[in-house]
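User: Could you check the structure of this?
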Amino acid sequence: MVYNVNITQITNNSSQDYNAQVSGFGDVVWEHEYAAGDIDLNYYTFLEERQIAFDTVNETNPDISNLGNTAFELEFSPGDRDIVYYDFLSSETTVVADSTSNELNPQLSDDYVVYESEYAANDFDVYLYDIANDTTVEVANSTESEYNPQIAGNYLTYETELSADDTDIYRYDITNGQTIAIAFETNRETNAKVSQSGHVVYEFEYALGDTDINFYDETSGQTITLADSTYDELNPQIAGEYVTWEAWDGNDYEIYRYDNITGQTTQITDNNLNDRNAQVSEQGFVVYEQEFGSTDMDVYLYAGTENIELGTSTYNELNPQIEGNYVSWEAWDGSDYEIYSAEIVDV
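Assistant: Sure, the predicted structure tokens are below.
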């Protein structure tokens, strides 16, 4: 199948716009630097731009659900960040967590918000907020640090730091409240991501300078290794039955994609440039950054069997995100960063 893209420049101003996130319907949320110490959140939908968070403090780190709802951090004061939820249809905001400590890193599905809560300086816990019922449950609250929660559907995953050299991976099932250990070797297992089906992909540090990619299959209950060269394979991402990552080949980083249905791995890039920060959709589309020069990062889309240019100016295009048939990224225009989006269409 052959694909094309329809590209839209969402912002065009003299302020910094960055950290865009895109929904499955093409809605985009991003950070807008209104002034020093005052970052707001703007939202684009149906050719309309609106402000969704515009207090005189920083509102940052937004995440957007498939349906277009948003969760973000609000800096109440130094050392005290709260979690806020924005409902797209009602345009109403709800404070999800507002203790006197930090609540950080909100991740959002259509029904839940998961986040980190700072119990003490070296003790972060993981909490889950049920949007419909306006209730919060503790997912992980040991005396160790649990952090980096990720959510998809009714599953979430997180890391537990047993020591500086030993981090394990756990997965929590929202439906039955059960937690299972996904990876618990004495090595570092980190950077876990989860799919709506309950699959988990993560990094496994085999040795210093040699990190591999492992995949836990919810259907079989087995863990397999997707990439285990003597170099680093990093930054795994998952959506549906597709996994993507970047791998060092001895000269530069290349992008790979694994199809869990067929068991096939496809090398998406093969060049003398660094290809990094790949993201994948449930349809198997992949977006990534390509380092054309020291100050010239471009954004590409892999769709079907083609690598399609999305942003290839002589400046930096960064932070590609994808959901369904929609992509977002930020681009330097010579003065500041602007936000772009693209719709992937059949030809």
